[in-house]
Specification:
By secondary structure, the protein is mainly alpha-helical. Helices cover 76% and strands 1% of the residues. The longest helix is centred in the C-terminal third of the chain and has 35 residues, at 304-338. The structure holds tryptophan. Residues 21-22, 24-27, 97, 100, 224-225, 227, 230, 232, 323, 326-327 line the site of tryptophan.
Length: 452
């Protein structure tokens, strides 16, 4: 089996595919509403702190496990050190990635509906009209489920084409388009009258809103956005070449990811402030407020609102699919290699499980609002469970595993690509993986759950 294993074909392919996984609804849908709910610039500063101190070392740790093992997540966590127990990190990763794929596809499906509605000119109207439109659409039973399932199916079709022809090709095509679309809308949004207040909200910190919850939210957001903690990066790294510089790749991807999140903020808040929409309107921000923002804000010039709205939802759908591909791949390659199934059948298992989760999540925020767990809709519960519990736990265990359990020589060999020279960067990384990450993640947990 080892011999048939495909790798990414080029350096740029590696960066774009992994950045494609990282850049997604997490940046364009989740980041803006989390920022809006948690006080703007102060949240962003803590978020950036989490990326630098915990995110990058976490990414490198997953890369080390994956690239060294060159196999699926579960066997990878058994390879770096003896003792089979650590494989549980891989199993947990597959479980959380598949749950995320399920609820993420619900929102990705909404994007498809909105793309369609934008093209058909159905989003033209005042804010009451648009918010009714969202309520009517998301409250119906069939259409949201259909779009969610369509999205999972599209993901399935890319994944079965394999690493080079499916994942890498899609990312190389979609990522540049995504960046251009984003820039166009950012410029349009920042040129609106009154946009300055939105920019100020993003860049002028107000620490009065910061409490333990904000730290956990920022941590969860950082990990979610980097695709960290579900063995997703470990799986992608298993397709890296031996020459790939892990530290450099992690930094590049973290930089691209954070830049796109901030650009997404620059796209959404100036437009929202310009028409007096509150920044903390939560997960529906981009579906309820934005369509009318686009219409009102660009009302002076005919067609601009119409075109911007189409571009925006196309952008979201593209960003989402390069991410769902990566969530799907983790489970697919596991079933493919472990159960010796064909890639197609392996992918079918993931698709079916994610589809079931998608259906229930979709109903829980629409037609059956009784579908709740711990007082949250099923969808919010899964989002909380994965982003704020499972991902930090996954990243914590990975850092402990690489920092303390795996033989240091092997870890150093992967980090430095085989050069035996003493490396300051390696020392810094090892310190972060051994001490900084575990201690910070545990402190944030203890604080959030009321122990300290
Ligand atoms: N990072 C993606 C985003 O920001 C989501 C994502 C893709 C993800 N793969 C993942 C999140 C694996 C957690 C784990 O939208």
């Amino acid at each position: 089996m080892g011999k048939e294993r495909n790798n990414f074909g080029s350096k740029i392919g590696i960066v774009l595919a992994t950045a494609g996984s990282a850049v997604g609804l997490g940046n364009i849908w989740r980041f803006p509403f989390m920022t809006g709910e948690n006080g703007g610039a102060a949240f962003i500063l803590i978020y950036i702190g989490c990326i630098l101190l915990l995110g990058i070392p976490g990414m490198i740790s997953e890369f080390i496990v994956g690239r060294h093992a060159a196999t699926n997540a579960v066997s990878a966590y058994g390879k770096l050190a003896s003792g089979k127990g650590w494989k549980i990190i891989g199993v947990l990763g597959i479980v959380s990635a598949t749950i995320i794929l399920g609820f993420y596809s619900v929102v990705a499906g909404w994007c498809l509906q909105y793309l369609y509605a934008s093209v058909a000119g159905r989003l033209n109207g005042d804010s009451a009209y648009v918010s009714n439109y969202f309520a009517a659409f998301s409250g119906s039973v069939v259409m949201p489920i259909v779009w969610g399932l369509v999205f999972i199916l599209l993901t399935h079709l890319v994944v079965i084409r394999g690493v080079r022809n499916g994942i890498e090709k899609a990312s190389k095509m979609f990522m540049p388009i995504l960046f251009v679309l984003l820039l166009i809308i950012v410029i349009a949004s920042c040129l609106l009258p009154g946009a300055g207040r939105g920019i100020e909200f993003l860049f002028k910190p107000d620490f009065s809103k910061v409490d333990g919850g904000v730290f956990l939210s920022a941590l969860g957001q950082a990990f979610f956005s980097l695709s960290l903690g579900t063995a997703c990066l470990c799986t992608y790294a298993s397709y890296f070449g031996k020459q790939t510089n892990l530290m450099r790749s992690a930094s590049q991807i973290a930089l691209i990811d954070s830049m796109i999140a901030i650009l997404a903020g620059l796209m959404i808040f100036p437009a929202a402030f310009s028409v007096g929409v509150s920044p903390d309107s939560g997960p529906s921000l981009i579906f309820i407020t934005l369509p009318s923002v686009f219409q009102q804000a660009f009302a002076a010039v005919p067609m601009v609102g119409y075109v911007i709205s189409i571009l925006f939802y196309a952008l979201l759908a593209l960003a989402a699919i390069t991410s769902t591909i990566s969530m799907h791949e983790i489970g697919t390659v596991f079933f493919h290699e472990q159960l010796k199934l064909s890639r197609k059948s392996a992918a079918a298992i993931v698709t079916v499980v994610a589809a079931i989760i998608c259906v229930f999540c979709s109903l829980s925020v629409g037609a059956c609002d009784g579908l709740q767990l711990f007082g949250m809709s099923l969808m919010d519960f899964f989002d909380f469970l994965t982003a704020q519990i499972m991902l930090p736990v996954g990243a914590l265990l990975t850092c402990v595993y690489v920092g303390w359990v795996a033989p240091r020589k092997v870890v150093q060999h992967e980090f430095t690509n085989g050069s035996n020279a003493r490396s300051i960067l390696f020392t810094v990384y090892l310190f972060a993986a051994r001490f900084v990450c575990p201690v910070c993640i545990i402190l944030i947990f203890l604080n959030q759950f009321g122990v300290i």
